[in-house]
Amino acid sequence: MVSNVRERAKERMKISRRINSMMKRDSQSNLMTKKLSKKLFAANIEKQQLHKNNIRSWAIEYNIQNRALSALLKILITFGSRNLPSDSRSLLRTPRSIQIENTAGGQYWYNGIGNCLRNVFGKLNSNITLELNFNVDGLPLFKSSPVTFWPILANIHGMSDVKPMVIGIWSGIGKPKDLTDFLQPLVSDIDTVIRNGVMINEYRIDIVIRCFLCDSPARSFIKGIAYFNSKYGCQKCYCIGVFDKNARRMHFAEFNKPKRTNNQFLNRFQKEHHREESILQDLKNLNGEPLIDMIKQFPTSDPLHLLEEGVMKKVLNIWMHGKDSYKKKWSKEIQEILSAQISIYNKELPSDINRNVRTLQFIKYWKATEFRTVLLYYGMVAFKDYLGEQEYIHFLNLCLAVRIYSCRSYVNKYKTIARKLCLVYCEKFGQIYGINNIVSNIHNVIHICDDVDQFGPLTEISTYPFENFLREIKMRVKPSNTNIEQISRRLVEMSLDISENKKIDMNARQREKSSWTPELKYQFNSSNQSTFKFIRITPNVFFSVKKIGDRWFLTKSGDIVEMKYAIRSKNSYFIIGEPIKRKYDFFMEPYSSHKTDIFLCDTEKNNERMYHYGEIKSKLVCLTYKDQFVFIPLIHSIDECSEFLSK
Asked: SS3 letters for 442-482?
């Protein structure tokens, strides 16, 4: 009897254990199910957010109208995208109100340096120092309206992939009526960030004011000085202009005058040079010394305005139409021949130069990049047989000087030569084209050397990034009575998108640069190994057999090679190509062309050979000259190959 009771007790205990075990397993299963559900839910939320961010970025990048975007959102919602808002303003996170102030005779929206940097460097994980370039310029909005924008922009030196940032925008008729009111928010902001830095994620960004990059009228305006075409308008030296009543222009024909200094500027050494006092000169550094050098930190050698839309445009118009005492203009037949040659060269250009040069009959519509292509590449070949010897050698002075000053590798070797070339160009300009044609832009060629000494190659003081961004700003403005509110909202939307999706990770940038490896594309198979039609050897230098202009390169040993294909072998990268057999100097005056790696070559080539990608010195532009080739290094490729392939 007792044994039966014990057995039943044991059975009950076994059953109880089984039940507890089953309950425990069910509990664990439920827990796992809950965890899995949470993960799936989180993944779904993340996917929906990514979907939302992608639509927002697309709408901002392509400047989609709000009405069109709202209509698209409603369509997407009906097809199951319930997480999307139905109104474009909710998706873009358009601010409900914008702080606009009435000042300097117009309306002013000030964004601030700190806000701009926080949007870009949201992932900051160390203290850094940034050099900022500032730009101020007038931007007419519409042909039928006198209303203009005066944006204050800044970009980060050494980070060309980061777009310029909008520090503030003034809107009104003409330009700001009071310089002090216009600059006061910027000056106060600069003073604050210089003293306190910008704090992000408990890390500090220290700011260095590198320079102000502006065209001549805007530069004169913010410095409070005489304009470029006035008697005391030279911003670098004490050359006094002379007004020619017949030509009705001011010319600056003296090139050996003393240079201006910051102390002289602050003390108004030449009173006629000053219109009013700029509060930029009141800024002080932490030691109480002037923060901004009002002479050196306002370079006049921006290649876009000085050289391309300035000097190159002027001399081309003189050659085409004649001017004043210069009567040797090109005939209509010569202009047609040169236009045909330009059309041929357009087909031979590498893909890096993405705008073709239009024929000479459309020269008044040319963009700055077209003048740049003629100055750096086409001109020295196409014009050789159609300019007088004196004019051609004089033009080569400018071409060589600009090429040297545009490339760090050349600046380090030939800076003294470039200085002489600029001096000769300016001194002989009056002898050839008439002294009254030595306008402000021609005179300022003599000051390029000082700006390059201060800031490095001309590409480091170019306003191209700012001009391109101003065009983007203008495209985002629709005609209305609230232009300043409209553009400020668009810019806030853009900055929020950058803050959300495009923050800069400094460590990742450094890792990408240090671990760069070439890229091969467009594979086709040969008998023994894989070969490729395309190779990218640095982020911005590539070669391809698909286009004739992308095949040519110069090696460090001096070979000029046409690429046939690229391969990867033994964990490295090689280009198989045919080197040119013979090369010569294309010109001997004013200096031998080989100094800047410009060569005239026959068409005969040697047998194929293999080149390691690290042997490449630069990519080449190949232009036909009679029945030979002229090879000219592609400017940006020289320094980039030197930087990435120097190991």
From this structure: HHHHHHHHHHHHHHCCHHHHCCHHHHHHHHHHHHCCCCCCC
Structure tokens given for 423: 């001096």
**Among the listed residues 135, 130, 133, the one whose alpha carbon sits nearest the alpha carbon of residue 169:** 135
pLDDT recorded at residue 51: 82
pLDDT in tens, 200-244: 988 999 999 999 999 999 999 999 999 999 999 999 999 999 999
The overall pTM is greater than 0.85: yes
Same domain flag for 43 and 116: no
Between strands 519-525 and 139-140, the pairing is unpaired
Is the CB of residue 495 less than 8 Å from the CB of residue 507?
Answer: no
379: left (phi over 0), alpha (psi -120 to 50) or beta: alpha
Q: Is the dihedral of CA 48, 49, 50, 53 positive or negative?
A: positive
Which residue has 């996917």 as its token pair? 47
Which alpha helices (DSSP H) does 250-312 contain, by range? Answer: 262-266
Q: Give the dihedral sign, CA 235/240/246/248.
A: positive
**Angle 113-120/483-501 helices, nearest 10 degrees?**
40
Is 431 in contact with 391 (CB distance < 8 Å)? no
- Report the C-alpha dihedral over residues 392, 405, 252, 238, rounded to 10 degrees: -160
Cα–Cα dist 562/548, whole Å: 9
Structural domain of residue 617, as residue ranges? 516-644
Is residue 438 exposed (0-12), middle (13-18) or buried (19+ Cβ within 10 Å)? buried
Integer-rounded Cα Rg, in Å, for the chain is 32
Q: Are 363 and 314 in contact (CB under 8 A)?
A: no
Q: Which two tokens stand for residue 119?
A: 């949007």
Co-location of 202 and 291 in the same domain: no
**Residue 76 and residue 198 in one domain:** no
